[in-house]
Amino acid sequence: GKMNKFYSVLFTISLMSGVFGQCEVDFDFGDVGFGISPDPLLGETLTPGVVDQEYYDVIHILIPTTAADIEPDFPPTLPVDSVVLTDVLFTDIVTLIEYQPEELGLEIVCNNLNASPDPCTFMGGAQYCVSLQGVPSIPAIFQIDLNVLSWVTIFEPFNIPLTLSANLNVMAELPGCTDSSACNYDSDTDIDDGS
């Protein structure tokens, strides 16, 4: 159909420019009404990155149908119209220095399945994804805060600011085996990964 043609054109362009392009919306959240994956509350983190190495990973977001999924104090009849990703902030968890993704050589690419002209506007009750890609320039463990405005409608639309968080570890070197007597010794690494 028409939709597939559109995707294949996008895909070809993104391959030619050397970027990974849009993420696939394919995560199973089970029975929950609202979620993020990887979820730092469950100890999950994004794939570790390495400075000066091409990086790509995906954050999946399940947008709730009602505001009660976000904030238990809200009535279950309050529908979530949409959620807009307004800002993404990376905080070095040791120094507490905050960075915009571009300052780290990274970019955030939203995929809202063409639900709205703004790719970072996500409709209530559906799942979307955001890819994190680029070449990281600073080694650190970052908390990533995705700041969103959740628009809910009862008589007049109003918004609930909300922060979704994920964690990313960017290493200075590729980990490997630092034991020179081992068969898998790697002279290019200074981080022993226990292998």
Task: Describe the model.
By secondary structure, the protein is mostly beta strands. Helices cover 8% and strands 38% of the residues. Strands 2, 4, 5, 7, 9 and 10 form a 6-stranded mixed beta sheet that branches. A 4-stranded antiparallel beta sheet has the order 1-3-8-6, with no helix packed on it. It starts with a helix and ends in a 24-residue tail after the last strand. It is elongated, with a radius of gyration of 19 Å.
Can you summarize this structure?
With 195 residues, this protein is mainly beta. The protein has one helix and ten strands. A hairpin with a 5-residue loop joins strand 4 (80-92) and strand 5 (98-99).
Helical percentage: under 10%
SSE order, as H and E?
HEEEEEEEEEE
User: How would you describe the shape?
Assistant: elongated
Estimated structural class: mainly beta
End-to-end separation in angstroms reads 49 Å
Q: Could you tell me the radius of gyration in angstroms?
A: 19 Å
In round numbers, the mean pLDDT is 82
Beta strand %: 35-45%
- Major sheet characteristics: 6 strands, mixed
Number of helix segments? 1
Task: Tally the beta strands.
Answer: 10
Uncertain spans: 1-19
What features would you highlight for this structure?
four-stranded antiparallel β-sheet; 10 strands; six-stranded mixed β-sheet; mainly beta; 38% strand; disordered N terminus; 8% helix; 195 residues
